[in-house]
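Supplementary Text 2. Reproducibility record for the structural model of the 99-residue chain.

All settings were left at their defaults, and a single model was retained for analysis rather than an ensemble. We include the record here because the model underlies the residue-level annotations in Supplementary Table 4.
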Amino acid sequence: MLPFFGPSTVRDAVGQFVDTFFDPLGYVLSREESIARAGIEGLDKRENYLDISEALEKTSIDYYASIRSVFLQNSAYEIRNGVPEPIVDIYGDTPAPGK
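Retained model, structure tokens:
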């Protein structure tokens, strides 16, 4: 959990840092405008997830563990481009595809 950035992995934190240098608006806007833009984007993101965050906080036993779990599941989903995770038959009861 990173202050002002929320949950993150090392990969995501490095990616966010690198993205700041490749943002074309960063070269056009002044420093104050860039800071204002980042603040507004942060507030917008917070507002979008406020209801979900409050519901998760009320219903979970360990709020931070729940946030971490949801974040990692969503990251895996986005990495797979929305394709569901393959189901692994740990007991070997299901025949392999094509047999």
